[in-house]
Specification:
The protein has 131 residues and is an alpha+beta fold. The chain has 4 helices and 6 strands, in the order αααββαββββ. The chain has helices spanning 4-21, 23-26, 29-35, 52-58, and strands at 36-43, 49-51, 67-79, 82-92, 98-111, 114-124.
């Protein structure tokens, strides 16, 4: 059973993660800087490594064709002030077809009372239904 404080944190980090899936946030460099740690690194579903500078340069100009869907959020707490969020995602086309399925993990750190993502990884997965 998950502790009450962890339920609250899972809810908070899930909301922050979903915010990063929102096209309007993905175009907002100021908000991206608030959500992503200065040392942020991602190993994407494609296998490419990107850092914060890459995100701030590329995300605001990415095409908005479709949306990100996600479910199955789980929380791991390896240390005080550190949380790992596990979940699965897919890209949903405007016609409602899911593709680019992935298992994902995001490492969040809390500094000054604010949670920021410091690491993210997406691993290709077999197709699944998003709940």
């Amino acid at each position: 059973m998950i502790a009450g404080s962890d339920v609250i944190l899972l809810t908070k980090l899930t909301a922050l993660e979903r915010e990063l899936h929102d096209p309007s946030v993905r175009r907002d460099v100021h908000r991206l800087r608030e959500l992503l740690h200065p040392s942020f690194v991602e190993i994407g579903r494609s296998g490419y490594r990107i850092d914060l500078a890459d995100v701030l340069r590329d995300l605001p100009t990415e095409g908005g064709n479709g949306s990100i869907t996600a479910d199955g959020f789980e929380l791991l707490r390896p240390a005080e002030g550190v949380a790992i969020l596990l979940y699965r995602s897919a890209h949903r086309s405007p016609s409602g077809v899911d593709s680019r399925h992935a298992m994902r993990s995001s490492t969040w750190v809390c500094e000054g009372g604010e949670w920021r993502m410091v690491y993210h990884q997406g691993t290709p997965a077999e197709a699944f239904d998003i709940v």
